[in-house]
Amino acid sequence: MSSPTPAPTRVQRPSAEVRWADELARLRERDAAAGAVVPDGWHLSPRSVVDFVLGDAGRRDGLGLETKFVGERALVERCVVALATDRGLMLVGEPGTAKSFLSELLAAAVSGDSTLTVQGTASTTEDAIKYSWNYALLLARGPSLDALVPAPVHRGMSDGKVVRFEEITRCPIETQDSLLSVLSERLLVVPELDDEHRVLHARRGFAVVATANVRDRGVNDMSAALKRRFNFETIHAISDVRRETALVQRQSDAILADAGITSTVPGDLTEVLVTLFSELRRGQTADGRPVEQLSTAMSTAEAVSVAVATGLAAAWFADRPPRGEDVVGALLGTALKDSDDDRSRLRGYLTRVAKERGGRWRELYAARDLLDG
Amino acid sequence: MSEPVTGAREVDADGICWVPVRHHSPAATRAVRDLVERLRPRAVLVEGPSDYTRTDQLLLPHEPPVSLMTWWRRETAERTQVAYALYPFTVFSPEWHALRDGAAIGADVRFVDLPWHLQVVVEQGGYDEAAAAAADGVALHRTDEVSDSFFDRLSAHTGRPEMSAVWDELAEIDPALSTATYLHRAAVLGAGIRADADARARRGARGRAERRLDVAREAHMAAGVRRARADHPDGVLLVVTGAAHTAALQERLAAAPRDDERAGPPPTPDDVVTGQAIVPSSYEALDEQRGYLAGQPSPGFYDRVHRAAEDDGDGPGAVGPAQVTEHVLVEAVAALREAGAPLSAADLIAARASMLGLATLRGHPRPWRDDLVDALTSTLVKDTVAADAATSADGGHPLINRVRVLMRGDAVGRLAPGTDLPPLVLEVEARCAELGMPLERRAASYTLDLEQDGDRTRAQLLQRLRVLEIPAARLVRDVRDGTGPVGAQVTARVDPTQEWSVRGGTTVTAQAVLASRYGASIEQAVLAVLARRVASGEVEDLTAALLDAVLCGLPDLTGRLSEAVEVATLAVDRVAGLADPLAVLLRLHRFDRWYGTTDRADLGALLRLVGLRCVELVERLPPQAAGATSRDLAAALRRLVDAVVASPALRDLEPRLAAALAAQLGRGATRSGHAPEAVGALTGARWLLESVAPDPGDAPGGRGATGGRAPQGAPDPAGTGEWYAGLLTVAGHLALAAPEIFDPLDAALRQWEDTDFRRALPDLRRAAAGLLPRERRALLAHLGPDGGPPAAALDVPPEVLESLVAREDALWALVEEHVGPLASRSGGSG
Ligand SMILES: Nc1ncnc2c1ncn2[C@@H]1O[C@H](COP(=O)(O)OP(=O)(O)O)[C@@H](O)[C@H]1O
Ligand SMILES: [Mg+2]
To answer: Residue B187: helix, strand or coil by DSSP?
Structure first.
């Protein structure tokens, strides 16, 4: 297997195994040095996979691994054990909770490759999941391995790699169910091929990580048979405001820098923004007072976009450091879409909650009229 | 045991063996028992209140969990203060075994900690500053709530975020952990926690107060250790304290007594009365207390771990330490199956593989509690889990909750015969006798008139017993407040008396002992129970508790709860969610004389707020789906209209409610997105409101079920059974008072095809079931006089109908006998 080449600077968003190639290499060395048990077909030991996903900040014996997915260790451990025990893994949750990101990290760490990905849509067919044919070759030579065009599942099975299935519940049920035999018997039958090639047995290391969004159809429509073959993990928004603030700051700084903007969103403003997101998401203020929830998901990903929009607006249109009113403006433009109800709920929140708080909250309170009309 | 005694390390130069413990811990228990057996100490000193002199009571054959309850009471001219704390003991508490094993070998067993009522002085600066009512028992075994550098590092190292899990990693999971390793690790952990506390004390007032308390307690404990050493110059002293205290005590004992130790604790003021009693506890109660309360998550699990270690795998049916969790897994699967989860053998295999995988990944020498819960969560739960699954009371998912319940265990402690009774039990008996309702074996009946102060006090006492679930009092008949639904004809007599049946007996005593865990006095216990009930913050729980607070005569709590209800109301976004609260508040407001709340303006304001919020929610009603949503809406609308019409405090909301209903209906079913039943309910609400609203041209006093005005909002010609069901749920009872408003309905129904009618029948029947028989009959009589589909479809033989009618008439005659003649305002009926 060819090892990934270093990240070319031009790539907009390198895949995880490219971006963190160096960390992956160090973890392999550590596994080898410690004689850690690496499951068949895996690139790393389960413990190293967990460390890669979460980073090891704060550990004295750490390798200086960057914090990537912010979440409970137990959750990541469960995900890793699911893959190690030959179960499918289904990540469920609100949009923007890093389901896709987590699945990418897992695939990169387990297989060294996160690119075997099926994107689920209403029109996804089995072709896009398992394999299709090169019709020119098929007509010329009849069914043969040469004419077969492997899709991610076929490749994952023959190479022993993790296959990612994004937004699986958007696919028609029958399409989803085509995974059944793959997951239970671990084999794929290509009836057109000759006896020798008809059955593809999955190599060790093959596993499926699917994601599903609870705002879509949800997992209720999924067949019971398929559900049984997956371990489900609910991914929640980050519950600790401090950690979420740090993440939003880090990511928005990076994106703004990428856009050539030198100023960043000030720390106290990011903290206000993240607090607002987390309170509206939970329907409760930090000191336990209820607030009306919005219909928008108010995810961390959304918080990052609002922070970025805040920075852009201040730099491009006002040419000054970002302030509270820019946050309100950005919320209006990004997160609230065009829901009148959400607007009036946010206004209610600012009126009741922001009013009593000092500092940056004052700026948000003062800008609440932007939400009218 | 033939091992050489490792005395040199375990016992210091002064002959003291320091045992740092966590207060509920099978590992600590193992170490303590091993040390007592090997070292045969002369005295065993335990972190417990030193003013408790009845250790003999603790040594009786109780069945844990039991708690030592210690309380103080102070009466001054201004107020009565009562507070208590609990020291819980489980079968896996090291202190429990230290006392018992120590006593068994003839050692002198003593509590050495600072008495609790003095801790209040140290921590809060004196009784005047002490919180008037610590509604929850405070408990002294602070174990969690550490989040500082030492702990953060430990947490990063072990990958576990809470103290209890970190402790497990260090002490509990390895079944073969030796006493020496245990002592070493617990000492290091204790010193680290202590260092974090030092850092906290340097940072802020809260940390300083905690530190002050720790220091005072340690001074007292150190003095206790020295005294015991003086009393027993030879042999080993075993000192069992929370791990964080051990190092500080060692440091003190290594030098001469410091000033604070020599000065001794502050004196107990004369006006403070203190006492202790042993009370039963339960795993349920222990499991609930998190944070720094002396709780223990999943006590049932640790109970098994402890028993497995004690049996060590021998004896019939014994489970070895390595198999405990696997056994719990099998039980969990059985429990889940019993609860209806269809789990196959494959599921069990997957769960087990996952549990073992997690244990291996985490480096656990045997599968542990979190491996099990995580494995079940991961393999069996096929939908989403709530965000607060780890901390929420219900586990965030029914399946996990079932497992939690299993691990929590259901043990309830029992006191040995001959145990002194706690003060609450005595107070219950004394108060009842004092108010002339002595608790005797034979039930006695009392009629209490709530308009009389004395009787109201009696009723409040009995209500308190009810809240505490002490079965000494049963409400046989409540007051009659004469509130019928608006527009209904039945107006019962108003009667301010209640009838109670009061009795004593062993069940009553037993329940009172059990209730003692909530507090040292009746009032204290009621406050604690109500505080627990409102923990959810749900407006319904809050109003229910508010009602109880009023019934029990607890003005302070009433005030606090009404504030909480106010806040919670704003978060409710369904009218149905406010229907019960509104009814409760209405009742409290209208009959404030009976409940002794005449002077409470806050309740009136609250009623208005809830009413206003309801109207707002009708204004902003989102599309109402068919089924339960619409049914709940109908029930809520009926009560809302009732409330708005019946209460002077809400009457000015009437035009706004009418406008809201009109606006909702004006949008039509398609644009509003409401299901037919919801539209019917809105229509019914409008009829109801119009039928009782003052007609501008009417003579004064025209309020009430006036007939003659055709309500707006003709029935939907395509009306379905659901539409009628909604309508009748809200306004069906008008059939008696204002039958003519059903004329348009009548006309519409008559156009229905037979099949339409039959299809609608179940819904109609459901709606009619909510009506009084008399109203139902009036409605039928009105709708069906010309025969036509209704009568035909009902298809009841005339003689059956006749006998039914006769039976209902007899019933009503009986009712009238009891409640007085039923008014009949619209010229007789049926
Ligand atoms: N818990 C988290 N840890 C790290 N990043 C997060 C987290 N939650 C959200 N994000 C950010 O949000 C982005 C969007 O996540 P994504 O994986 O697309 O969400 P999803 O698939 O759940 O809709 C991530 O790439 C990351 O930048
Ligand atoms: Mg995604």
So the answer is: helix
What pLDDT shows up at residue B314?
67
How many Å apart are CA B212 and CA B200, to the nearest integer?
Answer: 12
Whole-number Å distance, alpha carbon B323 to ligand 1 midpoint, is 40
Cβ–ligand 1 distance for A117 under 6 Å, the answer no
- pLDDT greater than 90 at residue A263: no
Estimate the share of chain A in helix, then strand, then coil, as percent rounded to the nearest 5: 50, 10, 40
Q: Is B71 exposed, middle or buried (0-12, 13-18, 19+ CB in 10 A)?
A: buried
Chain A environment of B381 (Cβ under 8 Å): 232
Q: Cα–Cα–Cα angle for B599, B603, B609, nearest 5°?
A: 145
* Preferred mutation among B166, B168, B364, B378 to probe A, highest tally of A CBs within 10 A: B378
Q: Which residue has the higher pLDDT, A306 or A354?
A: A306
Assess whether pLDDT exceeds 80 at residue B18: yes
What mean pLDDT comes out for the span B536-562? 87
Give B467-523 pLDDT, tens digit per residue: 998 989 999 988 877 665 555 544 556 788 999 999 887 678 777 877 887 778 899
A192: pLDDT confidence band, cut at 50, 70 and 90?
confident
| Amino acid, res. B560 | R
Going by the DSSP 8-state scheme, the letter that residue B517 receives in this structure is: G
Residue B20 main-chain phi, psi, to 5 deg: -75, 130
Cα B25 to the chain's mean position, in Å? 27
- The angle formed by the CA atoms of residues B543, B544 and B545, to the nearest 5 degrees, is 90
DSSP strands (E only) in B233-386: 237-242, 272-280
Instruction: Among B157, B385, B571, select the one facing A283 at the smallest CB separation.
Output: B571
3-state helix/strand/coil string of A315-328: HHHHCCCCCHHHHH
Q: Is A222's C-beta closer than 6 angstroms to any atom of ligand 1?
A: no
Contact A277 CB / ligand 1 (< 6 Å) = no
Q: What is the ipTM of this complex?
A: 0.87
Position B821 pLDDT exceeds 80: no
- Under an 8 Å CB criterion, which residues of B touch A? 152-153, 156-157, 159-161, 346-347, 350, 353-354, 357-358, 361-362, 370, 374-375, 377-379, 381-385, 387-388, 537, 567-568, 570-571, 573, 620
